[in-house]
Amino acid sequence: MSRRRFLETVAKSGGQSFLFGSLFVNTALLKLPQAGADAKSRAEAEIGKGVIYGFVVDTTKCIGCGSCVRACRAENNVPDGYNRTWVEQYTFYPDGEVFVNSPNGGEDGFAEALPTRNRPSGAEQAPMRGFFVPKLCNHCIDTPCIQVCPVGASFKTDEGVVLVDHERCVGCGYCVQACPFGSRFIDPRSHTAGKCTWCHHRVTKGLLPACVVSCPADARIFGNVSDPESTISRILATNRVQVLKSYLGTRPRTRYIGLDSEVI
Amino acid sequence: MRHAGHFVRLLALVAIAAVGFLFVRSQVIPKDFGVKGHYRLSAVSDEAAREPRHLGSEACAECHDDIAAEWTAGKHTTPQCENCHGPGLMHVKKVSDDSTAGYPDKILTQYENAINRGTGIHECRWCHLKTFERPSTLKSIASVEKHIALRKGTFTPDTKCTDCHNPHTAIAK
Amino acid sequence: MHHYITEGYVLPNQAHIYWTSMIVLYPYITGIVAGAFIISSLHHVFDKDELKPVSRFAMVMAFAFLLFATLPLLNHLGHPERALNIMFTPNVTSAMAGFGFIYSAYLFILAVEIWLVYRTDIVHLYNETKYPALKPVYWLLALGVLDISEEAKALDRRVMVVLAAIGIPAACGLHGYVGFIFGAIKANPWWASPLMPVIFLLSAIVSGVAMVMICYIVIHWVKGREINGECVTALIETAWYFLIIDVTLELLELINHAYMANEDWIILKELVTGKLFVSMFVIQILLGSVVPFLAMGAVVVFKQRAPAAVRNVIGVVCGVLLLAQVGAMRWNVVMGGQMFSKSLRGFLNFEIDIYGREGLIAAAVILCLPFVVIYVFSRLLPLWGSVETFPKEWMKERPPVRQPLKGYSKFTS
User: Fold this and answer.
1) Which of C11, C73, C188 is nearest residue A177 as measured by Cβ atoms?
2) Which of B45, C28, C77, C209 has the fewest CB atoms found within 10 Å of its own CB?
């Protein structure tokens, strides 16, 4: 149970005892959160409220082909030099060094294998382990980008998708600064903020996002989290998932399987 | 207050400015702003109105049924048609009713080039070049030169993967 | 927007710097406003009479700079034509959305205050200007009310004190608020700090006092007028006090980052010792803080015993150094926060443009515009003192003591 949920539960159940006499110890405050309460409260929050989209990235499956990046660029006409989604390559060496790379966002694949490196001692060392991590907008529940937009040009739809109104955006760039994940940019053609929309124009027509369709490794899973029977709900119910920069409290809706601590 | 004439005029100016601001404000705010939240509601439908450009392999199979049959029977079914050939929307528009008018030339050529690709070695390298981070279960080669040398062939600048492999089935020709 | 050369791993969308010279300039300009206003308030509200020679000028300077505070922002916006959306549909949760209202309110307070200070002079000059073309200008400035009776003046004074008293928190609010825009961004470890508004405010005051001090001494030198020693000493003292608190907090901020040594300190350390070394340790701290601290400290210690020429030179030189200090601080915050990626693994090599919309030349032009306004103002109204100090050649001659006899006037003129 997250701290927020805990406090909300406390506020709900504790209201009455506070009403009838705050002199008595509020029993709800002393109750420890029970196992499974998090899943339950998440279900309560999301099930039965219509369609709420979610996204799961399975980093253990990603092969780093860059299909998602290419599909996204073509589908959404993303300007050169900017990315709505990108793939990062992480390579670990025995001495603890980590190399992170994302040439052109991974759009042209990762053709060059990282060479063996020389240790300071002179001895060669081959990489120890490595993996790919696809990234995209986290469509946070408590989004810092919508929070800072001065004109109300950034907003969240009922399905939890964070969008930009290109007719009202003034192009100040504050949302770009406020996004902890580097998901936003100012489109040099429209001078307004650009970002991943989870292919809102596709998913509202019953199609999957372009990156999900094009992924040959099933590393990207998209679906309706308020439907307990959906693929994504089953994956969320049976996996340990992580989010990026959870300490910032933005509560991302994009969740990761197999996230390494070096991924920030 | 007999000597406050200048303040009266000042306040009048402020009042005019405030009323003017409120009037302009009432005129320029879209009618559907703030209906659901602090945003223009029709921005959602604006976004949803965009045309999907990736049509899916089923759409491709409607015309290219021979290749689709070959593809579904082969061992290379995880990548979709549009992964290598690019999004199909413009192509379909062009061959069906030529309704691509209105799209910028740059985009049209981009898509035309994409739909004709899939013949080089570039597309195969995206997945099948060996990198440390790729799972070992994925068939991959360290370099095209080495791969050909190993197969006792000769590598020329014109060599393509498709000379030996059928990309639709992943079975050697 | 450029694609900058990067080192290490930079997130794809961060290979661009979105806020450049204009966003450095904007807090710099509002800072000068806040500082100049504080100087004038020290005289008007706190009765620091030593500052009387500069109190009017400081107010005009605050006003002139405030007029152009929005220009860098408009120049930066992707869609300046939509700028008023910030007041039409302000988003209450946005730190930036308040800007339109805070700015307008402060501009209004400042404009009314200047108007009240100068109203008597406006009416005098309406009657006495030599140029008929200026008469309607003065009439408009007086809002068509030429009442300068003692009762009206007394009322003006009362309103003035109230406005000055509101103006001080408003000035602090405006500038502390600018710091909040940066300090409230949790995504950027170099910005996110509750100290940011305080540091912005204090450095604002330092830069405003420095600018007033430089202008006062230089303009009086050039014009060959007498420089008031007590006034210069008081300005140096004020700048010195605020500099001490300002630099203390700036260092505290840095030391706190280093001592807490969070995840982000690894990259922040490389940032301050690498890309920001010159602008931070050399300009901001050594030249901009230590040198003025010692030089102005000497004036503070020796007071009137210091020779006037030495004091004035220290005033100008330290004023310039302080302006550089505050400029460097703005640069280090705004640009420093964008020179590293949120991947915390890479840097951008930022090079400022010379030409172009957000280039150095554009910034210099914007920084000069307030001085144009001050110059125009000085042609219309006395900058430094009351109407007696206004150049006589622009005013009608005082009515001659001997009235010409009726019917003979055409011969006398």
Assistant:
1) C188
2) B45
